[in-house]
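Researcher: Let's try something more involved. This one mixes different molecule types, so please make sure each is placed in the same coordinate frame as the others.
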Amino acid sequence: MRLLLRFVSKNVGVAIVQIFIVATLVFLLLRFMPGDPAVLVLGTERGADPAAVEAMRATLGLDQPLLTQYFTWFADILRLDFGQSLFNNIDVTTYLAERLPKTLELAIVAIIIGSIIGISLGIIAAVKRGGVVDMIVSSIAAAGLSFPVYVTGTVLILLLSLQLNLLPASGYTAFSEDPVAHIQKLFLPAITVALPLAASIARMTRSSMLEVLGKDFVQTLRAKGLAEKMIIFKHVLRNAIISVITVIGLELANLIGGTVLIEFLFNWPGLSSLLVESINNRNYPIIQGSIIVIAAFYILINRAVEIIYGLMDPRTR
Amino acid sequence: MARKFLHHKTFIVSFIILLPILIIALIGPWIAPNDPLEIDSTNVLKSGTSGHLLGTDEYGRDILSRLILGIRPTMLVAIGATLIAFFGGVGLGVIAGYARGFTEKMIMRAIDIVLCFPPILLALMVVGFWGSGVKNLILIIGVLYIPRFARITHSATLQVKGLEYVQSELSLGASHFRVITKAILPNIMSPLIIQISLTIAAAILLESGLSFLGLGVVPPEPSWGQMIGDARGYIYNNPMYVIWPSLCLGVTMLAINLMGDSFRDILDPRLKNKQ
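Model: All components are placed in one shared frame. Result:
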C-alpha cells in the first residue's frame, strides 16, 4: 500500500513539474519573441503611436520587470486567471470554459467509436489469424494510418455530404437547441477522428491478443476442454486488454490537442480552433491560456494512464 | 545489403512512387506549365480545360503548376527538420552517454521538456509567437524530433561503451571522436535509419497540417496542405480543387510510410516477426 501511494504521488509530482515547465516556456516565448508583441497586436498604423503601445504593453503585462512578471504570471495561473481577450475584454477563462467541453465531447465520442471498432476488429483478426478479416484489417490499418486526418475527412465530406447528401458538411449546433442536428454535425468529425484511432487500436489488440494466445496457460485451458469462446473472452482478452487500454489512454491525451485539424476542417468550435483563431489575430492572452489548458490535459491524462497501468500491472511500477 | 532492398517488393513500390516526386520537386520550376502565382480573375475555379489541365483555384491560378511547385517547401521542411533532429539528437545522445553525471541528467531532462507537449501543439505555440514560414517550420519540427534520436543514441552509447573492444580502443589511446565514429555510430545505424524515415514522414505530416491551418508555408507560395485548406471552402464550386492535392499528399504519405516499413523489415528483422 505504501509503495502504491509512493508510486501515485510520484506521478502527481511529475505532472506538477511538467505543467510548471510548460507555463514557464509559454511565458518565455512571448517575452523573447522577435519584435514587440504590443506593436504586433496594434498593427503598423496604431503601433506607431507610443501612447497606444505603452497601454498595450501594460495590458499584456510587459511593462513590469521580468521577474515581477514571472511571479504575477504564476499567481494568476494558480487562480486560473489568464487575463482578458485583447479585443473585447471578456475573460479568457470564459472562452476556455465555452470551448473546452466541445473538444472533450468530440474526443470522447471519437475514442468510444474508435475503441469499439478497433477492439472488435482486432479480436477477429487475432482469432482468425491469416484470414480474410485479418488481411483486410491489416492493410486498411496501414493505409488508414498514413493518410492525414484532414484528407480522410475531406473524402468523407465529398462522399457523404456532397454526393449522397446524407449529412451536413460542417458546423455546430448546441445540443439544447436541436439534439438531432447536434448529433448529425458531430457524426462526420467524430468518425474522421475515430478511423485512424480504430486502426491503431485494432493493431494493438491484435498483437497483444496473439501474444497471450501463444502462452502456455491457453494450451492448458484448451486441454481441459474449455469452450473456445470462454478462453478468448474470459482469459485471453482479460490479459490482452491492459496494453490496449494504455494505447487508448495515450490516444485520448493526444486528441485533446490533436483534434485541431479536424476542428478546423469541420468548423467545430472547440478549444484548438480557438487557439488557431487567436494565433491568426494575435490574441496573446487567449493563445497562452489555451496552450496551458491543452498541455495540462495532455500531461494529466498521460500521468493517469501511467497510474492505471501501474495499478493493473504491478510489475511496471 | 543493396540486394536485400532490390528484392523487397514494398521498397520497390515505394521507390517507384517517390522517385518521380523527388525529381519533380527538383526540376519543378522548369516543367510547370503555368506561373503558379499568376492570378487570372476571368478563369476562377474552372475544372480541367485546355489551358489548365487540372483547373484553376479561387484566384484563377493553375492548380497543376501549384501542385508541382508545392512539393518543394514540403520536401525542404522534411529534409531540413530531419537533419536538425538527427544531428541534434545524435550529438546530445552521445554527449549524454559519454559524459554521464550532471551533464547527462541535464540533457535528458531538457529533452523531456519537449515531450510535455503534444507535437502539433508545440509547433502551433512557436508559430503563434514567432511566426510561420519555411525557416521557422524547419527549426521547430527539427527540435520536436530531437528527443527520439537522442534517446536511441544515448542508450546505445551506454551499451556500447562498456564493451571490451571499445574499452580496448580507448586504452590504446584512441580519441573520443574516433571511438564515437568508429565504434558507437556504426552499431546504431539501423535504428537511426529507421528513425530518419519515421521523422521524414512525421515532418511532412506536420508541415502540411500547419499549412492546412494557414500557419505553415506563407502564401502565395504553394504547399499541398495549404491548398487543401484553401480548397475546403470551395468544395461545392470545384470539388476537383480539393481532390488533387489530397490525392498527392495521401499517395506520398503512403509511399513514405511503406518505405519506412521496408527499412524496418530489412534492417531490423526481429521487429518483423513480432508484428
